[in-house]
Specification:
The chain has about 525 residues and is α/β, with parallel strands linked by helices. Helix content is about 35%, strand content about 15%. The chain has a four-stranded parallel beta sheet, sandwiched between helices.
Length: about 525
């Protein structure tokens, strides 16, 4: 008996296992069933048999209780079956009793490990009666490998998940009643959601306290299609100088008849390294920025892609890739872009995975799943394999392109910085302008930059030192300092990760609960 979390995986996994049984790669017949997610949880109200009305401790105080947590015995959790799970548990008990062995194939994360442990409890499985199997993609090779190489149930992960649930209950059930009493019924607080809410409040306070300051820059039209603006330099410095309105207007008058001379042209080659493959947080951010998908929507679509055997497991904080995945990238890059587009940088230049200091998972990055021939499925063949929504197709395409791009060369650009002096009546104003031209598109052949990144480039005409520029119009341009922007979903998830708040599996939930509660 193989037990997975989601019923949508059952048919796919059953077909894969049946194929291996038929060719004698596996010696047993398999039946695949689902736990439909979690089996047990902490009760929503106190169900302890020890609790009695008007029970008073020897010190004369009423006992402090929190539903499902035995505070007097080391914060031991007390679990109950989730509503409606009784018939399912009976069915699984019957199947387990008639099976020679139970394979617990729940997801390879904390929640999945906890579900596997709860199954051993409700099914009353002795250690000799079950094995834990894990796979990070639903493909034949990975499932065969998992079944042939079972692992021990990771009790450390189980304890970690259990501790989080206890802390969630201690925080939520303690603070939420205060909100009901002091603010309004129906509100909630939580260990993680309240920290997320505090981040939003802090940012809004920063915006409210921010005082906008006007400043001016000078724009000089110095020939066709060349209008350097706003980078008047401080005397003896390379830093920009912001002007007051009166000073800007006075400088416009002085410079209206000035002679402008190019005094320095400096060109350098700059390389922009390829992006890392996706982890949960960066997938959510990029899907929000590029595809306009909400964080929770991204995870829902990614779950579908995973269950269809199209991508690896989508809840991870790792950017590492397996050797098999590296080989598949090489095949795809060489086949589509040529052998010179596969980057084999030196140890000093090639970008290595750099995971968050809070990273805890041992999974791979999010990438396309390996097909039976050991390569990735190209997006153009996607719909020939499975029926997908437009959003799922676009998300898969983005994951595919990003995975290839991470092993392609950097973008090479020619960066030019020009220093221009405007001199008139003993007054000298220095302008600094810069521009860039792409000389090697690098990884963007696979993973195009978005419009915002493209707009960062500025084209400069060919200039040489000592060249006199014809002054056209000189203008004072008004600006205002801007407060820090409000969070969008992408920037909020990025900040959560940088602060170590939440986990890949909870980012979308934090965002959603703040929306559902109308806190934001």
């Amino acid at each position: 008996l193989v037990i997975v979390e989601s019923p949508s995986k059952c048919q796919t996994i059953a077909k894969i296992l049946a194929t291996y049984v038929k060719d004698n790669s596996l010696a047993y017949d398999f039946q695949v069933s689902s736990s439909m997610g979690h089996i047990r949880n902490l009760p929503k109200s106190d169900t302890s048999k020890k609790k009695k009305e008007n029970q008073i401790k020897p010190n004369g105080k009423f006992p402090y209780t929190i539903a499902g947590i035995d505070l007097e015995n080391g914060y031991q959790p007390e679990y109950v079956l989730l509503p409606g799970k009784g018939p399912l548990v009976k069915e699984l008990q019957h199947l387990a009793a008639n099976a020679e062995l139970v394979l617990l194939a729940t997801d390879p994360d904390r929640e999945g490990e906890a579900i596997a442990w709860h199954l051993t409890q409700v099914l009353d499985l002795a250690p000799s009666r079950y094995q834990r199997v894990t796979f990070t993609e639903i493909t034949p090779s990975r499932i065969l490998e998992a079944v042939k190489s079972p692992v021990e149930l990771n009790t450390n992960l189980v304890h970690a998940q259990e501790t989080r649930r206890v802390l969630d209950r201690l925080a939520g059930y303690t603070v939420s009643p205060v909100l009901w009493k002091k603010i309004a019924p129906g509100l909630s607080a939580g260990r993680v959601q309240s920290v997320g809410m505090a981040m939003v409040v802090q940012r809004e306070r920063e915006r409210l306290c921010f005082e906008t300051t006007p400043y001016w820059n000078i724009k000089a039209v110095l020939g066709k299609d060349f209008s350097p603006q706003g980078q008047i330099l401080r005397p003896g410095s390379s830093h920009k100088r912001h002007l007051l309105e009166g000073d800007a207007n006075e400088l416009v008058k002085v410079l209206s008849d000035a002679e402008f001379t190019v005094i320095q042209v400096k060109s350098t080659t700059r390389k922009q390294q390829p992006p890392q493959p996706f982890k949960t947080s960066t997938l959510q951010q990029e899907a929000n920025r590029r595809l306009g998908m909400a964080v929770q929507q991204t995870m829902r679509v990614a779950q579908q892609l995973y269950e269809e055997g199209l991508i690896s497991y989508m809840r991870t904080d790792s950017t590492h890739l397996s050797d098999d995945a590296e080989c598949a990238i090489g095949v795809s890059v060489r086949g589509q872009f040529g052998p010179d587009r596969l980057w084999v940088g030196s140890s000093k230049t090639k970008r290595k995975p750099k995971d968050s200091k809070f990273a805890q998972e041992a999974h791979e990055a999010i990438r396309p799943a390996l097909q039976p021939d050991g390569i990735f499925l190209e997006p153009r063949y996607l719909l020939q394999k499975v029926a997908l929504s437009d959003q799922a197709e676009r998300l898969y395409t983005m994951i595919y392109q990003r995975t290839l791009a991470c092993r392609m060369p950097p973008i090479a650009t020619n960066q030019t910085s020009v220093l221009i002096a405007g001199v008139q009546e003993g007054t000298t104003a220095h302008f600094r302008v810069s521009g860039s031209v792409v000389i090697d598109p690098g990884y963007t052949l696979a993973y195009c930059r978005d419009a915002e990144e493209e707009n960062d480039e500025a084209y400069l005409p060919a200039l040489r030192e000592g060249q006199i520029l014809n002054a056209g119009e000189i203008l004072a341009v008004a600006h205002e300092t801007q407060p820090p922007p409000r969070y969008n979903e992408a920037s909020f998830v990025k900040e959560l990760e940088s602060l170590g708040v939440g986990r890949p599996s909870t980012y979308s939930g934090i965002v959603q609960i703040l929306r559902d509660r109308a806190y934001v």
